[in-house]
Amino acid sequence: MSQDFLPFTRPSIDEQTIAAVGDVLRSGWITSGPQVREFESLLSTYFAGRPVRAMSSGTGALEIALALPDVGPGDEVITSPLSWVATANVIVRAGARPVFVDVDPATRNINPELIEAALSPRTRMLLPVDLAGLPVDRDRIYGIAREHNLRVLEDAAQSMGASWAGKPIGASGDLVALSFHANKNLTTAEGGCLVLNDGPEAKRCELWRLQGVERFADGGLDASLAGGKHNMTDVAACIGLGQMRRLEEFTARRRVLARRYFERFDPTLGCELPLADFEHSNWHMFQIVLPQHVERGDFIRDMHAAGIGVGVHYPAIHLLSLYRGMGFRKGDCPQAERIGAGIVTLPLFPAMLEQDVDRVCAQSARILQRS
Ligand SMILES: Cc1ncc(COP(=O)(O)O)c(C=O)c1O
Prior knowledge:
Elements: H1 15-27, H2 34-46, E1 52-55, H3 58-67, E2 76-79, H4 86-93, E3 97-100, H5 115-118, E4 123-127, H6 138-148, E5 151-155, E6 163-164, E7 167-168, E8 175-179, E9 192-195, H7 199-209, E10 213-215, E11 221-223, H8 234-244, H9 247-264, E12 286-289, H10 296-305, H11 321-324, H12 334-342, E13 343-346, H13 354-369
Parallel strand pairs: 2-3, 2-4, 4-5, 5-8
Antiparallel strand pairs: 1-9, 6-7, 8-9, 10-11, 12-13
Helix pairs in contact: 1-8, 2-8, 3-4, 9-13
């Protein structure tokens, strides 16, 4: 990057991938086909041989993961209030009720200590989120799930390239949903995937993915359930194949830049820095929480005026109007509310240079010192 406008994120798509997408477009087959099968096979290898199905979005992967064990009306799903609203919306769309459990301020992920108190006879599933690609403690989550006979759906939308116990997120566990949206560490422009437990579950996932339709050798078909339309296109899968070649490089580069932030961000400015995890996190985002006296809107405006993009990921979900309308209130999850009110995402993406990080840190200091 240069001294031009520095966005908070930017995908890295190489010329080889752009050429390969051109080939797909010229091939006459642009929706789900050979590229999707190859992408799924590569993903499955990456996820230790588990079945994987590619989707048109991470949201679609989450929706199907709730449908597979029939989560619906009368059920409760325990989740984090500090996430993209898709995490909770899919629960509501399934007809179930989200139960928000406050986050641990150190990780900004659901606090496992608080989960037991939120369980009820209606609890069916735990739906933890890895905010910014920092994995939630899998040992604690699966320990609770085993003890109370619950399914787990990992919202690993931001976790591609992150790891737990030396293995990639997705290589173990129950249902794992990932997103390949343009901002993610690995992108297909829009897209996602669901990692499943076995062949029969993957087969049912295929039905939920495309209208519930099964086709027969004689040309006939049947529909056994009211599935949606969540299949990935070959155009998107081709981008994903190009990205998979570079995933390790992307993650390594993000780690280098995150370390640079820790070296250069002035600790006396009163901001809360993220947990300095260089074992599990894929550094999907570098997020700071501003001091309470700083107006976030002013900070974002001043950074923007200096040519630096800043994001907000995310205000606490339970305070959005849909969820207030369902009875959730300020005070339900104080840590998520406080963090959600002051969090900002600083620029971090593989093509950034070290001096870009230095520029962000220097500009943040200039603004915060006069706030
Ligand atoms: C935590 C989280 N969950 C779910 C999603 C939904 O993924 P998609 O945008 O691919 O539908 C996202 C995407 O931003 C996300 O960050």
